[in-house]
Amino acid sequence: MSSIRPVYMGPRLRRLRRERGLTQANMATDLDISASYVALLERNQRPLTADMLLRLARTYKLDMAEIAGDGGAEFTARLQAVLKDPMFADIDLPPLEAADVATSYPGITEALLRLYTAYQEEQLALADRGDEIRAGASRDPEAPDPVAEARRFLAARRNSFPVLDDAAERLAQIVSGQNGFIGHLKARFNLRVRRLPSDVMVGSVRRLDLHHDEVLLDDSLDAASQTFQLAQQLAYLEMGDEIDAVLKEGSFATESGERLTRRALASYAAAALIMPYTAFARAVEARHYDVEALARQFGTSFEQTVHRLTTLQKPGQQRVPFFFIRVDPAGNVSKRLDGAGFPFARHGGACPLWSVHQAFRTPREIVTQWLELPDGQRFFSIARTVTAGGGHFGSQRIERAIALGCAAEHAHHLIYTRGQTETGPENATPIGVTCRLCHRPQCAARSAPPIGRQVLPDDFRRPSAPFGFSDG
Fold this sequence. Notes:
By secondary structure, the protein is of the alpha+beta class. It has helices at 10-19, 24-31, 35-42, 50-60, 64-68, 71-82, 95-104, 106-134, 146-156, 162-176, 180-189, 198-201, 223-238, 240-247, 255-274, 277-286, 291-298, 302-309; strands spanning 192-196, 206-209, 214-218, 323-327, 333-338, 367-372, 378-389, 397-407, 429-430. 43% of the residues lie in helices and 12% in strands.
């Protein structure tokens, strides 16, 4: 009796075929079998024998482990994550049932996941429109906002794109064997890298010159920024299909919104090339999420490293879920990413009591803070200033502050909470999402009364807070 047993791997085979853009007929021709047999294999109505596994490996130059990997585990993890949404809280959904559905009915599972993602996008869009109307936005509230479109796309997916992580990890292994990005660009595309002065670059930090077979970089960029620009250029050249496939999952009202999202996905891919998921996820645990130590290990900037920390939600390999915000000294929010359920204000500034606004007082120093929202949710954040621009005398430098945070229950994983004796979640700073949505009556930092509350006259009593407002 043969010791080699046939296995059923229909969903995994279908995923491999789709990833390579093949029809069942194409795969059948490649493997020298009938298209109907491919269909039976994908529906788990025929086993995938050892001989067929070898054919797949030889035909598509695959590692056997890649073929035999448990693709159902990813679907199961994603479905279980979706079913944790509060809207399902009153339904008994045992984990084993979710696993059975994901394994036995992969098509239905994929459909449910797509519907849930679309639902999240619509919820965010409705919130944006509602906030615009309440804030009395001067522009037409129905006019599409490209920046909001891109933010909704990322937020609905928790800024996590496993397809890009997997593709980047495979490409990073190839790049590492060719003397890095410069060597790979030369070997793969016959492109050489040149660094030129800012005045020659005429307002560009990176430019692909196909006429001269060159990638041009502004020589005022620091080492981390130059590496990132090369990685982003490589992402456009080699990961365009994967980026476009992810982009097709969204629905955009404006071309600008789609382009901004594509740029964000290319930046995501670039970070995944520099900080490959598996290696980076292993490092964050070894270094207890020490941003500065991780930045030195991977040769990245503080901000690049913080960005990457918000993306570690690959099903089955999740790490601490983080949120991220970047502000300038005037309080303008230029970027925000949420993988931790933090209720960012979609319009206006954040709470002035949050240390991200005070980080400018101590440049380049990490400031830690426990936070408590009006509904009792507690978070832990670190904040620090970062500098953009510069590079030579007289060039403009932009100072911004960034904050990275997580829910209080995850904070013990971070090196920044170790050894704290005087502060803890019980001493959290009470903050609000934004003044218009915060109903704390005694806040001395308030800049506007909350929506829906009547401001009281101060003829006979002047409260210590900027506004007195009614209880009801």
